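sanity check this:
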Amino acid sequence: MASQKNFDFAAQIHEALNDQQLRSNFKFAMGTMIQKRKAVFADPEETAALRKAGNTIKRRCLTKLPELLEQLEAKCKANGIKVHWAETTDEANSIVLDIMRSHDATKLVKGKSMVSEEMHLNHFLEERGIEALETDLGEFIIQLNNEPPSHIIVPAIHKNRKQVAQIFHEKLPDTPYVEEVEKLNAIARKTLREKFRNGQVGLSGVNFAVAETGTLVLVENEGNGRMCTTVPPVHIALMGLEKVVEKMEDVPPLLRLLTGSATGQIVTTYVNMITSPRKEGEKDGPKETHLVILDNGRSKMLADKQLRQTLQCIRCGTCLNHCPVYTRIGGHAYGSVYPGPIGKILTPQIDGLDIKGALPTASSLCNACQDVCPVMIPIPAIIRRMRDESYDNSPENHAEGIIKGHGYKKNIIEAIVWKGWAAVYQLPFLNRFALRMLGKFGNKLPKVGPLKAWTSVRTAPKFAPKSLHDLVKEEGIRND
């Protein structure tokens, strides 16, 4: 993944488009996931009602977010869960490290967690002598190959079985090259079971946190999440502060939307509800449970009525599957933890437009992402907001707030050009003069600089030698 400082989105797009194996892998995988979603949301009226319910729940919870977070903390503490608050990813990493060190732990087994990816937790811990092992099969594969995830739900979606077979053969000692999916799963299971037995601390994400009961909801298909949260004596759960919901009754519709959109299932194989560490007399579960709640720019999004809709996301990944840009370039081209449409609006708000402002430009604004979003996030409208703020650094034009790094594209040449454009359409004599010049010289303009870039993907306009006004006059028609 490109570093934040030298991120070159255009170069990574070209590299991805020239990777024929990647294109082939994505074409097969995306088609399969789209069909699975269609099958589980076959009734348009039912789907529309469910999406509306999901949107209503998330909007209601976001309007009450501060008080819900306080309620969640109180309930979790009453249940025996230790709650930690982190404003930044550095703080969150330090909290996890302190918990590990307090137990003299050097082995961490991890369930799937996008927040841990956002924190770059694995790298942070490994630099400090702690093994952080991914146990989700997709995450395990790409960790062996030293790659970041390419998809929110299916991290190794960019790999086919032959590539996975080669990774296992090269990275796991004494592992033969086999392509059968069942045998590859068996190899991974054998390796991970031993790691679960020896793991000192388990870590997981959180899909929903219920303020009413202090319950952490975690969905999965492989059982590794359940192993990470019950086998090690210590469990750490990571969540962004937007994951809290008000009541337990809010969970079923969101769960239905999440699993149907993410994997085309009515419900996942495992739905874990964690409300406390192991109690007296219970035979399994961790002796100690920690919840780390991360902000990392989310509270600033919450303060803006339009941008807060970004926080409605339930991380289903279906906007990626339907995006014509993502499906052709894959996740790594975005150089970010969150790729695709949701990444185009979330990442610039976290990292700043001056660093990741190129992401919103990679959109056709076809509205496919909005059409399938289970909680009805208006992604195209927020993308347009990102583009506007990239050029506009005037706070008065954004009454409720501005995004970090706003106005980074603004320059004096473009400002002069736009002022000239405005003048042409405000002053009749200047408009007539400009039309005559375009009629005479417009088609002869050399295709260099910005004009060359613009016409490289567009057909250059053909300027008529005479304006409509001139033609009318020649015909003798009065133009009063």
